[in-house]
Design a protein that fits this description.
Pfam families: CvfB_1st, CvfB_2nd, S1_2, WHD_CvfB. One of its GO terms (molecular function) is nucleic acid binding. InterPro entries: CvfB_fam, CvfB_S1_2nd, CvfB_S1_3rd, CvfB_S1_st, CvfB_WH, NA-bd_OB-fold, S1_domain, WH-like_DNA-bd_sf. This is S1 motif domain-containing protein. Belongs to the CvfB family. The chain is α+β, with helices and mostly antiparallel strands and 286 residues long. It has four domains: 55 residues, Beta Barrel (OB fold (Dihydrolipoamide Acetyltransferase, E2P)); 62 residues, Nucleic acid-binding proteins (OB fold (Dihydrolipoamide Acetyltransferase, E2P)), CATH 2.40.50; 68 residues, OB fold (Dihydrolipoamide Acetyltransferase, E2P), CATH 2.40.50; 67 residues, Winged helix-like DNA-binding domain superfamily/Winged helix DNA-binding domain (Arc Repressor Mutant, subunit A), CATH 1.10.10.10. Helices cover 16% and strands 37% of the residues. The protein has four helices and 18 strands. It has a five-stranded mixed beta barrel. A five-stranded antiparallel beta sheet has the order 8-7-6-9-10, with no helix packed on it. It is elongated and about 85 Å long. The chain starts with 8 loop residues before the first strand and ends with a strand.
Length: 286
């Protein structure tokens, strides 16, 4: 008889009742099915299909609510709590949330998933039989993805970040495309599990795509110009930056490249809203 294991779905017989539920058995081991985990399909005189997990006291327990993720079965699950000392907890659809260990998360916590983010996970157990969330590998993502076509070029898409590298981020789009966002095609590094919106800037031979989160040129120009104008408004119509300012200073203050800064500033000057003098930029008075 196989040993009962958290994270699996099994069919068990009712062995005996208790004030707080029923004990189920496979003939060798017993496990508690608490009243709160009983559904209307429960049959006291026959086998019942249940999912096994550890309760809040760490004891093996059963529920008739079968989660969408199990050992070897992947799906999207929502992050419901972040514990810096442990990792993040995800809701798999049962009464107890499951931990994705910090050992499986990025080394810097500012790109950890936040509450409400989504992770593509299955379940796993450690050597002590404790249940954890297991992030999907690249190979797993490829089994659920599908190729884009050349007709998808320049299309706006939404996707969820599933892998982070120093040079960029990988997402799985709502269409099922694997997308890569190079670090130069974003303003800031997205979190693992974060939903992002961008556009397809290249469709590769294998059907994966390159994405940009920066928007189209005219959209960027409007956004960047508005950012500079708002910054100047907050400083009574003047800022100590102009088109000859140091690129690093511009990046640190506005999170934009020197080229983007000059284009945005040029738009404001062309529109007659600002002028430059002695290393500063000022509002033009009406």
């Amino acid at each position: 008889m196989d040993e009962l294991q958290a994270g699996t779905v099994v069919s068990l017989m009712v062995d005996r009742d208790a004030p707080f539920g029923f004990f189920l058995t496979n003939g060798d081991e017993d496990v508690l099915l608490h009243k709160k985990d009983i559904t209307e399909d429960f049959n006291e005189d026959d086998r019942n299909t249940v999912f096994l997990y550890q309760d809040h006291q760490g004891r093996l327990a059963a529920t008739m609510t079968i989660p969408k993720v199990q050992i070897g079965i992947y799906d999207w699950v929502e992050v419901v709590e972040v514990k810096p000392s442990l990792g993040v907890f995800v809701n798999i659809g049962i009464s107890k949330d499951v931990l994705v260990s910090k050992d499986d998360l990025p080394g810097v916590d500012h790109i950890w998933p936040a509450k409400g983010d989504m992770l593509f996970c299955s379940l796993k157990t450690d050597k002590n039989g404790r249940l954890f969330g297991k992030l999907a590998t690249e190979d797993v993502i490829r089994t659920v993805s599908k190729p884009a076509s050349k007709n998808d070029f320049n299309k706006n898409v939404s996707g969820t970040v599933y892998r982070l590298l120093l040079v960029g981020s990988f997402v799985l789009t709502e269409e099922g495309y694997i997308g890569f966002i190079h670090e130069t095609e974003r303003r800031e590094e997205p979190r693992l599990g974060q939903k992002v919106e961008g556009r397809i800037i290249d469709v590769k031979e294998d059907g994966s795509v390159n994405l940009s989160l920066l928007g189209r040129t005219h959209e960027l120009l409007d956004s960047d110009s508005e950012q500079l104008f708002s910054y100047m408004e907050s400083r009574d119509g003047a800022m100590p930056y102009w088109d000859k300012s140091d690129p690093d200073d511009i990046q640190e203050r506005f999170q934009m490249s020197k080229g983007a800064f000059k284009r945005a500033l040029g738009r404001l000057m062309k529109d007659g809203k600002v002028y430059q003098k002695d290393g500063w930029t000022y509002f033009k008075k009406e």
